Amino acid sequence: MSIVYNYMLYFFIYSFLGWVCESIYCSCLQKKVINRGFLNGPVCPVYGVGALIIITGLWSYRDSMIAVFVMGIILTSLLEYVTATILEKLFHAKWWDYSKHKFNINGKVCLLNSTMFGFMSLFVIEILHPFVIDVLSNMNSLVLFVFLILAMMSMIGDLVVTAKALNSLTVRVDSLTSIVDDMKKIHAKFKLYEDEEFTRKLKISPEEVAQKLKSMSEKYGDLRVQEKIDEIQEKFKHIKRKTFVHRRLLNAFPNMRSAGSQRRDMHFQYIKKILKEKR
C-alpha cells in the first residue's frame, strides 16, 4: 500500500478514536450521552489531522519520550489554535473558550489541555500507532479499500449537511437582529415600556414583546404596524424551527458563542435557548 493510502486510513481511524474519547469525556462531564464533534458521524477530523501531524513529525523521536511529550504539546496546541481560528472565521462562532483556564492563549488553547495532548502524543507514538500498523498489515486489502471509500463518502456528505446547518444559524442570528431593530422602531412610536424596561424585556423574550406590540397596534388600529408585526412573527416561526443537526451541535458545544459583537452574541444565545427547548 502507498504512503498516501496508509495515511488516509490512519486519518479515519484516529478521527474515530478521537470521537470516542471526546464523547466519553464530555458525556461524563455533562452526565448525559453526548455526540461530540463538528460532524454528525462518529468522527472528529481534528484528531485525525492531529494524529497525522504527530506520526509524521515525531515518529523518528520515539526513542526519546521527553522529546515526544514536549513537541507533542507544541504541535497539538498549534493545531487546536489554528482550528479554533478557522472555525471562528468560517462560521462566525467560538466553539470553545478556555478564557477561564489558567495559562490560556486568547481562550483557544490552555496549558491543561495542551499537557493532556502531550501525554496523548506519547501514547500514540509509543503504544497505539505500532498496534494500528500491526492490525492493518494483517487485514484484507479489499476490506480496507471499501472501508476507506465509504468513510470518505460519508464524511463529505456529513460535512455538507453540517455546513448548511451552521450557515442557517448565522442567518437566524441576522434575522433576529433585524427583528429587534424593527421592534425598536415600532416601540418608539407606541412607547409601551420605558426604554430600560423595553431593553430588558427584549433580552428575555423578544417574541413576547412582539405580541405586546401587536396588541397595542390593534388597539390603535394601525394596520401598517400590524402587518409589520405579522411579518416579524413569521420570522420568529422560522427562527424556532428545530433540526437534529442544530440540537446535536448545541449539545456537543454548549459553550458556543458568537464571534461577533456582544449584541450579536446575546441574540445567538437566545436562539440557542429556544432551539434547545423541548417541543
From TrEMBL:
<keyword id="KW-1133">Transmembrane helix</keyword>
<feature type="transmembrane region" description="Helical">
    <location>
        <begin position="139"/>
        <end position="161"/>
    </location>
</feature>
<dbReference type="Pfam" id="PF06541">
    <property type="entry name" value="ABC_trans_CmpB"/>
</dbReference>
<feature type="transmembrane region" description="Helical">
    <location>
        <begin position="109"/>
        <end position="133"/>
    </location>
</feature>
<feature type="transmembrane region" description="Helical">
    <location>
        <begin position="6"/>
        <end position="26"/>
    </location>
</feature>
<feature type="transmembrane region" description="Helical">
    <location>
        <begin position="65"/>
        <end position="88"/>
    </location>
</feature>
<keyword id="KW-0472">Membrane</keyword>
<feature type="transmembrane region" description="Helical">
    <location>
        <begin position="38"/>
        <end position="59"/>
    </location>
</feature>
<keyword id="KW-0812">Transmembrane</keyword>
<protein>
    <submittedName>
        <fullName>ABC transporter permease</fullName>
    </submittedName>
</protein>
<dbReference type="InterPro" id="IPR010540">
    <property type="entry name" value="CmpB_TMEM229"/>
</dbReference>
